[in-house]
Amino acid sequence: MIKGPWKAKSKKEVVLPEEDIIEMQENLMFCDNLTEAVMVQLIHSVGENGFDVHGEKFLRDMGFIIEAVRASLYRDCDCVHPMAKIMSAFTTGKIDEDDNGLVGIDHEKLVRILEDLDDEEDPKEPA
Fold it and tell me: CA-based angle 66:69:74, to the nearest 5?
């Protein structure tokens, strides 16, 4: 028999995360890493072609694009990202009979959304 200074057993049992939760965490981490790698390459390529990649507007736009890429990858892994709802709100997507993707911005819907935002930002004076 081996005697040792074993730790006293806790009255609480250790609960380990389920395998599907661990898999989801790994998928999210992979999506985040892939997004970073793709976006670093994109920004580097854009900068190498003479665009200013350090300006405030460019960086803000890249933040939007980064989250759009991340949301697309999350969606493919059946995970939720708030940007996915925004993208669905003003984009269209169809696949034709030849398996070609027909995608784009629903300009009319986007204009309506922007008008609603403008109305919220500029409240009208009471008459």
Answer: 120
Q: Which residues contact 83 (CB under 8 A, 6 or more apart)?
A: 67, 68, 70, 71
12 DSSP assignment = S
DSSP class of 91:
E
**Structure-block tokens of residue 41:** 């390459």
Task: Specify the pTM.
Answer: 0.70
pLDDT in tens, 65-121: 999 999 999 999 999 999 998 888 888 888 888 888 878 888 888 888 888 888 766
Query: Nearest CA to 86 among 100, 70, 97, 98?
Result: 70
What are the extents of the domains in the chain? Answer: 19-80, 84-122
